[in-house]
Design goal:
single chain; mainly alpha; 4 helices; 85% helix
Length: 130
């Protein structure tokens, strides 16, 4: 699902043109960070709710409940941190891929001359946000 979202972002950025030039990578990084922050907030809220639920228990059952809540919280925070890193790396990879595609397209344009070459290079810059 996340890969599909990243690909949609990259493809839409390619189609939408120069309005997003240079912003694809930073937008994807910002989105990954925002998603991670939201996941961490949700993990904290779930932890607090679980701790409140544990208050009605006593003895070993309460201890187990608290430890389960802590384990779930740590797991959710860890997953959010990993997802954030993956999202940021995906943004870097997308930027690198677009740069490589631009270079390949520019090499194709070298076979042309005059205004056709200028138009080809211009179109490649827009398409690959260079």
């Amino acid at each position: 699902m996340k890969l599909r979202i990243a690909m949609c972002l990259a493809l839409s950025a390619m189609v939408l043109g120069p309005a997003y030039a240079g912003d694809v990578e930073s937008a994807m990084k910002d989105r990954a960070e925002a998603q991670a922050d939201a996941a961490k907030d949700m993990a904290k809220r779930n932890y607090e709710l679980s701790r409140d639920t544990c208050k009605s228990l006593s003895g070993n059952a309460r201890d187990v409940c608290v430890k389960d809540a802590e384990a779930a919280y740590i797991r959710a925070k860890s997953e959010a941190r990993v997802d954030e890193k993956v999202g940021k790396e995906r943004a870097v990879a997308t930027a690198e891929q677009m740069k490589a595609q631009y270079k390949a397209e520019k090499a194709r344009c070298d076979g042309l001359s005059g205004s056709a070459k200028d138009a080809c290079v211009s179109e490649a810059k827009v398409r690959y946000h260079q």
